[in-house]
Write a structure and sequence with these properties.
The chain is an alpha+beta fold and 412 residues long. It has 16 helices and 16 strands. The longest helix is centred in the N-terminal third of the chain and has 20 residues.
Length: 412
């Protein structure tokens, strides 16, 4: 019979990877608490209009990647492709913006119909941190410092570097996009096919193209810093100064733009320096017009997102502690005596494994395979005399003990 395989671009989390996922959850929860962020969980699908306007009707995400379907009432529903807009939607819906600034974080599955490859899935897990309601440069700094702290705490085995840029204010962006479109129009025939489609729709995306011909043209493309307003220059200088004072090392990358239409001012990426493809680990920035676009108040925002699967790929292996003991019941007539012990030990927070077998040899073999230290053996003799046989599987010695003595052994 043919196996039913998972849908292409999806994957199951279990074993070591699930252990790492849970470890990331613990680290995120602790850091969020330390930095005074509150968790939020939103539905995995939303009305399609939530994503279409803020992401840009002609952005790659909307054009090619969203999973959109028609509900029974003919309304369009989309599985969330990113988390910033659902978090803002939830903040508006639930009147959370009455007391600003609002600091929220979330972690959960996203959906994009991309070409599956290593570290990129069609269903993937993402972490988001968002600060809503502050235009202070300290907010930009805090969100970046938090990301840096997270990466240090999860013990990656790769060299990570922070890249920083500014897109200026919204007026800067309008003018800059016009100049870019005009520039790339002159060299249209030299651009990659994909970039040709972006000349008048999303010219910023051409700047971070990986195509060799595009990279060559980008060298002489107009530079965004030539379009900064006085206030945009000051904001960027403040962010750089505060990051330096916080001990954060960064490099300015003038080609860094981020892919979605709602970004302005500070944009940043933490990248894996040991890789040339799929190397962005955390990406984010400021999005001062987004909340208003979603029919909320005209307040600023800044945040970042991180793909969990990419993080897991780069984490050092963590030690998974095996069970301390394995209970081995030799025959069924001793089951109640064994169950009574098992319940007692688990109530006392001892990690005890039981395999439901009545075969001493097989159970001992499994205990050795799982690197369990003690085997607690119960048979007719143990049940009738009210004691337990304990074998130290690391050393090979075996003793008979009562319950109090058993606790002494397990605590040693």
């Amino acid at each position: 019979m043919t196996k039913i395989l998972p849908v292409r671009g999806t994957h199951d989390l279990f074993g070591k990877n699930l252990f790492l996922y849970k470890h990331i959850e613990k680290i995120i929860s602790k850091i969020a608490n330390d930095y005074d962020f509150n968790e939020i969980i939103t539905p995995i699908f939303e009305k399609s209009e939530l994503f279409q306007k803020p992401l840009g009707q002609l952005s790659d995400v909307v054009l090619k990647e969203m999973y959109t379907f028609e509900d029974r009432n003919q309304s369009l529903i989309t599985l969330r492709p990113e988390y910033t807009t659902p978090i803002i939607r939830a903040a508006i819906t639930n009147n959370l913006l009455n007391n600003l600034p609002l600091k929220l974080f979330g972690m959960g599955p996203m959906f994009r119909r991309e070409r599956p490859q290593r570290g990129r899935y069609r269903q993937f897990n993402q972490i988001n941190f968002e600060i809503l309601g502050s235009s202070d440069s300290f907010a930009d700094t805090e969100i970046i410092v938090l990301a840096s702290e997270f990466l240090k705490n999860i013990n990656l085995n790769k060299k990570i570097k922070l890249y920083l840029n500014s897109l200026g204010d919204l007026d800067t962006l309008v003018e800059y996009k016009k100049k870019l479109s005009s520039y790339f129009d002159k060299y249209k025939n030299d651009l990659s096919d994909e970039s040709k489609l972006k000349i008048h729709t999303n010219p910023l995306r051409i700047l971070d193209s990986k195509d060799t011909a595009d990279i060559k043209l980008n060298i002489n493309a107009p530079k965004i810093e030539n379009f900064y307003s006085v206030s945009a220059i000051k904001i960027f200088e403040d962010v750089k100064n505060l990051l330096s004072k916080s001990g954060i090392i960064f490099e300015i990358d003038k080609s860094l733009v981020r892919g979605l239409d709602y970004y302005c001012h500070t944009v940043f990426e933490f990248k894996n320096e040991d890789s040339v493809s799929q190397n962005t680990i955390i990406g984010g920035g400021r999005y001062d017009g987004l909340v208003k676009t979603l029919n909320g108040p005209n307040i600023p925002g800044v945040g970042w997102a991180c793909g969990v699967e990419r993080i897991i790929m780069m984490m050092k292996e963590l030690k998974i502690n095996p069970a301390l003991a394995q209970l081995i019941i030799v025959e069924e007539t001793s089951k109640e005596y064994g169950l009574n012990l098992l319940l007692k030990l688990r109530k006392m927070n001892f990690k005890v494994r039981y395999d439901y077998k009545y075969n001493l040899k097989k159970s001992l073999g499994q205990a050795n395979e799982f690197k369990i230290k003690y085997a607690i053996i119960i048979g007719e003799k143990e049940k009738n005399n009210g004691f337990y046989t304990v074998k130290n599987l690391y050393e090979g010695n075996q003793i008979e003990v009562d319950f109090k003595e058993l606790l002494t052994v397990l605590n040693s």
